[in-house]
Design a protein that fits this description.
Distance between the termini: 62 Å
Strand order of the largest sheet: 1-2
Shape: elongated
Order of helices and strands: HHHHHHHHEEHEEHHH
Number of strands: 4
Radius of gyration: 20 Å
Strand content: 5-15%
Structural class: mainly alpha
Largest sheet: 2 strands, antiparallel
Helix content: 40-55%
Number of helices: 12
Number of domains: 2
Length: about 260
Amino acid sequence: MTEDQKGGRYGALWTREESILAFELYCRIPFQKTKANNPAVQELARALGRTPASVARKLGNFGAFDPSLRTADIKGLTHTSKLDRQIWDEFHADWNGLVWEATLLRGKRQKATRAEPDVKRPSGPSEKKRLTKERVHQSFFRDAVLSSYEATCCVTGISVRECLIASHIVPWSEDERYRTDPTNGLCLSATFDRLFDAGMMTITEDLVVCLSGELRSSRNAVVRALLLRYHECPMKKPHRFLPAMERLRWHHANRFKA
């Protein structure tokens, strides 16, 4: 007897809609927490009418395709399906599509169970739809980036979640394609987020922290004690969603004040 036979779906094959919701959750939580006892996994299981063990296995299937896990010698599950691969390939090329489609699917399922959806499909002016999309995109991006870095600043190592920002390497205003792409993100403390955005700090292709000439020449004792200590230090690498090299090159060429 399979886990699904024990828990509500009697071995039913996973649908595309279910797989999209599972993949979106996979991206939001650390791989080591894709377990049946994780409340987020249990919540999705209830929504799908499956067991937490079944959902956890599906998340493990996506881990089999994750190059960052392979680099760290972490293996996902091996019983993947053609649909798993299709979902992985499709939405790695369309992160914005993943976030919005998953949001609408959750709302559809909540409506079917007479619950109020977290996000309704906008029916008013285009500005309302734009603001709704921005909110759900920001939420996904923050979850995906912070979980990848284990809620730790990749420069300072600070792990106070309230002080952390999921920073875009290429800003939203420059290229909307990367708004929700976790490989376009860095987990930074608020101070280093501002420095990065202002071009006074960058991350090199070797994943090394580099501070601007203005900061390096500063005689301010606080700057020298609290900022310059990180110059030319390696950044903390994420467990998943390593920063895309072409976007780091873009930041260095277009924003960094060497």
